[in-house]
Amino acid sequence: MKDFSYFFLWLLLIFFFTSPNVILTAHAFTGTYGVCYGRIADNIPAPSRVATLLRQAKIKNIRIYDADHTVLTGFKNSGIEIVVGLGNEYLKDISVGEDRAMNWIKENVQPFLPGTLIRGIAIGNEILGSTDPELWEVLLPAAENVYSALHRLGLTDNIQVQTAHSEAVFASSYPPSAGAFREDVLQYMKPLLQFFSRIESPFFINAYPFLAYKSDPAEIDIKYALFQSNKGIYDNKTHLHYDNMFEAQVDAAYAALEKVGFPKMEVIVSETGWASKGDTDEAGASLKNAKTYNYNLRKKLAKKKGTPYRPKIAVKAYVFALFNENLKPGPTSERNFGLFKADGSISYNIGFPGLVSSKAASTRISFKEFFSSSYVLALTTGAAVLLLDSLSQ
């Protein structure tokens, strides 16, 4: 009997260490689809209800723009992977020294581990290309200090350091092969890319075909922006055809990276989306277009395929945004990017359920989810401990 128990114990341990779904280190992105969980609103559900909504929709990745403790507590044991944000307002202080970064992490990240799956820290948002050159100068040292503090805490295998850029960092992006960084940005971008290359962090870009179309509706075919059937564009340099603007924007980023010596760096879309409502001068902002864009984007990402220029690297993207945010300043479109309304119901149907209140829906775990989650880790560890205890008696 004891020999059998030892044999069973070894089987458990072999399963734990070799199963492809039970990993010892985390990635900042699972699968290809995520959402941005903005909260500039006074009428959206509490974080624990949001976690339920995301589980029902089978959305596994989110980005938030701060490290709000209520959110991080509400997502405990949800299985949803989160990238938290170190706001632009903190960068100057964090850039001063590693101790400042350590204090921030100990206050806003470490207390919520491991129950809340914090997989990344985004250092600022759209810093390079903004109109504040003082922030350009502190972005890299802030990122380095955060990484160094995470390393000292033994968290760099679990938490990725990253930053997201806007399209404003590019001098050109059409056709995709012409993608290139602005000269004034490049002196800050290149050392930043060297750092991210060293720590194996991707290049994150906020890519919005909606904004491109809105700025030039007379020249851009809306079907090209919405993934609908159209003649597309042909890139004479690469001899590649593009039938949608989203992939063209991603490949323009790849081309820009290649030009400055980073051909192997992965590009991930940190924001993309389409407004369901806008002002009279916001071309394309409509419920129909938002539904079309987000439905077709979700379908494309589900295929887990690459772009014309990087066909072997599956495209990954976070959709902006989870909710319509009624307190966001700016044009009407800014308050109408949500996949869901403030009450948790869908803004339009692209295949997601709305917020279901039943206990069964909020606690249901599928067979596939079970074997790809921490439940396996808990049961495996528990069984091993019980066996070792019985064998020692």
From TrEMBL:
Statement: the UniProt record of this protein carries the keyword Zinc: no
Keyword terms: Glycosidase, Hydrolase, Signal
Protein EC: 3.2.1.39
Gene Ontology terms, MF aspect: glucan endo-1,3-beta-D-glucosidase activity
Family annotation (PANTHER family): GLUCAN ENDO-1,3-BETA-GLUCOSIDASE BG1-RELATED-RELATED
Family statement: Belongs to the glycosyl hydrolase 17 family.
Protein name listed in UniProt: glucan endo-1,3-beta-D-glucosidase
